[in-house]
């Protein structure tokens, strides 16, 4: 009995080398033969169990390895590598089905030598590969090229022959009842595959299908998560953009409702955009908010292009700085533009468009307010120049005092004349430097001013520094220092006479008062006195009456003759008449004033009084 148990133990132990020798020593009778056969069966069963256990462990290990992979290519490579090792074949490969093309193609291999074999595409139901890809179970051939059970294709047979493949075994890979491909093994020698090998390939094919299905689901889940994360980021980004736009709107409307003006609006925009921002006002030529006007000349040229496209346009300043400009258009009128240095994001683009709208609204409102203030100043100044017969009202004096012009405080009045564009430039310069606190108005194409002594001093210096030529012919006639509102009307009348006189006296400069005109100024300052009027009548009466009665220009001829040093030729050239005409006029003047009218002291008297007469008459010099 102990001997039998020993043999049974050796039958279960694969490492025992004495098992066969001891079997041979069993009795040769029927009982011994049955015992020998039984022990061999036990040993074979044990060996099969061991192989099954090892295969199960290998499959389990393979499943764990495959499940840890997150990329399809890596998973396929792991499957074919382990399949070849477990089944013990020369090669292993996977094919995936393409229902649209009606074929299956090899996608991953291990142990394959030739590229032609790796590139095999088999139509469904042809060859082993094509049949397995449509089969319900495993298919094998012991010698592929000699097998009559499969449909052969010439180019496939050539690839098989080149690779040297003989025996092939394949099993389908299924997902939810659908065959997605096949797992195959092959040897370069002819033989039948064992049941263990068939089982292993089927099991591995099932594992491969599950792994690919899981990877596909994982990919779908990952893709969904990615889309969700992207959507969430987009949503957060959109919320961020909306919050930034809302904050920008709040800042812009705060600037619009405040008294900060264009500089304040520009500062808020610079803060919002995080870069230098400038505002251009096209309704004025000189603006306090337009810093660096010369530098921004190129930027102004971009505004029409922006208006045409109704979008921001890019350009370059004269110093090479890249800028973006958006035009401000209100009711079809281009009022200005917003300039930002550098490139803009989509969010910045939206803010820039909003800023342009706010700027246009700001300029439009400012211009309307400016026009209303101009109207009020004009009414006030007109009342001061021509007060009611019963005197100025208290509210008029109070309104004038708001500009620093009041009884008991030193102030001056001034009258400014020049070309229309030059006059506008001068007034805009005054506003840019002094703001709105300057009493001024336009009457008869001239600028009337009333300002405290200190402000007048600044204006006179400001105008005088550039000279009349640089100001385009702008000239200012002014009063002496005043301290009574009642004198304003008469002083403006004097300023008109001084301004007219200065036009005939180039040496007078572009800031003139009666003192700067010498003798003429004294007469002008007293032009309304009885003495001056009497002097004019007594000296020039016959000449004035003759011109009035006959429509002649004897006064102008006499003045021009004296101005030209009593030279007939120069006088004729200045008056654009013939010399004989000058001689005839001089004879008439001699008959009216006496032949000595242009000699000695009488010449000086007549010269001065002729100038005064012309200025009082308001007629321009005839040369």
TrEMBL record:
Top-level taxon: Bacteria
Pfam families in the record: GAF, HTH_30
InterPro entries, per the entry: CdaR-like_regulators, GAF, GAF-like_dom_sf, PucR_C-HTH_dom, PucR_C-HTH_sf
Ranges where the GAF domain occurs: 71-222
Family annotation (SUPFAM superfamilies): GAF domain-like (SSF55781)
Entries under PANTHER family matching the protein: CARBOHYDRATE DIACID REGULATOR (PTHR33744), CONSERVED PROTEIN (PTHR33744:SF17)
Protein name per Swiss-Prot or TrEMBL: GAF domain-containing protein
């Amino acid at each position: 009995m102990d001997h039998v148990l020993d043999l049974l133990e050796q039958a279960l132990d694969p490492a025992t080398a004495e098992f066969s020798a001891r079997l041979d020593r069993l009795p040769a009778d029927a009982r011994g033969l049955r015992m020998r056969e039984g022990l061999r069966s036990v040993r074979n069963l044990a060996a099969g169990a061991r192989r099954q256990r090892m295969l199960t462990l290998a499959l389990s290990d393979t499943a764990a390895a495959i499940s840890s992979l997150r990329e399809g290519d890596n998973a396929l490579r792991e499957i074919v590598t382990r399949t070849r090792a477990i089944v013990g074949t020369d090669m292993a490969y996977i094919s995936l089905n393409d229902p649209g093309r009606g074929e299956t193609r090899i996608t991953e291999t291990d142990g394959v030598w030739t590229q032609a074999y790796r590139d095999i595409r088999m139509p469904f139901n042809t060859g082993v590969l094509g049949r397995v890809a449509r089969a319900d179970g495993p298919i094998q051939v012991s010698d592929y090229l000699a097998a009559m059970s499969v449909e052969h294709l010439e180019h496939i047979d050539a690839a098989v022959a080149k690779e040297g493949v003989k025996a092939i075994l394949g099993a389908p890979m299924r997902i939810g009842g659908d065959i997605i491909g096949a797992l195959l093994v092959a040897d370069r020698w002819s033989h039948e595959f064992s049941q263990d090998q068939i089982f292993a390939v089927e099991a591995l094919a099932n594992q491969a299908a599950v792994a690919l299905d899981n990877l596909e689901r994982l990919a779908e889940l990952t893709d969904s998560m990615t889309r969700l994360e992207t959507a969430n980021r987009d949503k957060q980004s959109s919320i961020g953009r909306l919050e930034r736009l809302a904050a920008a709107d709040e800042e812009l409307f705060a600037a619009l409702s405040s008294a900060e003006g264009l500089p304040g609006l520009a500062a808020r925009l610079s803060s919002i955009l995080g870069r230098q921002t400038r505002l251009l006002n096209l309704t004025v030529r000189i603006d306090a908010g337009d810093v660096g006007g010369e530098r921004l000349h190129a930027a102004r040229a971009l505004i029409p292009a922006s208006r045409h496209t109704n979008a921001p346009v890019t350009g370059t300043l004269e110093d090479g700085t890249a800028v973006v400009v958006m035009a401000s258009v209100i009711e079809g009128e281009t009022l200005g533009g917003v300039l930002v240095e550098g490139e803009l994001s989509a969010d910045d683009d939206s803010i820039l468009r909003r800023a342009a709208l706010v700027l246009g609204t700001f300029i439009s409102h400012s211009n309307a307010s400016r026009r209303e203030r101009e109207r009020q100043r004009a009414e006030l100044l007109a009342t001061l120049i021509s007060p009611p017969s019963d005197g100025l009202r208290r509210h008029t004096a109070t309104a004038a005092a708001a500009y620093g012009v009041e009884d008991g405080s030193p102030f001056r009045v001034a009258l400014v004349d020049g070309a229309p564009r030059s006059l506008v430039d001068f007034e805009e310069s005054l506003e840019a430097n002094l703001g709105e606190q300057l009493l001024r108005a336009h009457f008869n194409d001239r600028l009337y001013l009333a300002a405290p002594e200190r402000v007048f001093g600044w204006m006179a210096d400001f105008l005088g520094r550039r000279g009349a030529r640089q100001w385009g012919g702008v000239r200012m006639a002014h009063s002496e220092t005043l301290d009574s509102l009642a004198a304003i009307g008469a002083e403006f009348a004097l300023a008109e006479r001084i301004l007219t006189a200065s036009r005939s006296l180039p040496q007078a400069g572009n800031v003139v008062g009666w003192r700067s005109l010498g003798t003429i100024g004294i007469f002008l300052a007293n032009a309304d006195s009885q003495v001056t009027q009497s002097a004019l009548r007594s000296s020039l009466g016959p000449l004035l009456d003759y011109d009035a009665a006959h429509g002649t220009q004897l006064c102008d001829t006499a003045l021009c003759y004296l101005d030209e040093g009593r030279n007939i030729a120069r006088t004729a050239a200045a008056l654009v008449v013939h010399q004989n005409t000058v001689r005839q006029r001089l004879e008439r003047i001699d008959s009216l004033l006496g032949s000595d009218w242009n000699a000695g002291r009488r010449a000086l008297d007549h010269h001065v009084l002729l100038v005064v007469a012309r200025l009082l008459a308001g007629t321009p010099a005839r040369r």
